[in-house]
Amino acid sequence: FEEVKQFNLSHSSPEIIEPATTEEVTNHIKKLKTKTAPGSDNIKNKMIKLLPKQYIQLIVHIYNACFA
Fold this sequence. Notes:
Layout: H1 2-5, H2 22-30, H3 45-49, H4 53-66
Protein name: RNA-directed DNA polymerase from mobile element jockey
Organism: Parasteatoda tepidariorum (Common house spider)
């Protein structure tokens, strides 16, 4: 995961979206319904809810890099 952590997308336009926090993402993950069909990625919400904290932090890092 080191390559992803070192990924930095920089540009000159002003920031439009506030960076997400691990706490925010964790709270949204807790609200996911588990008795629904997976999407086109075939990832079930139950699997997302079982992610270890380090994977949630990785998701937050990727999200923030995309919208930085």
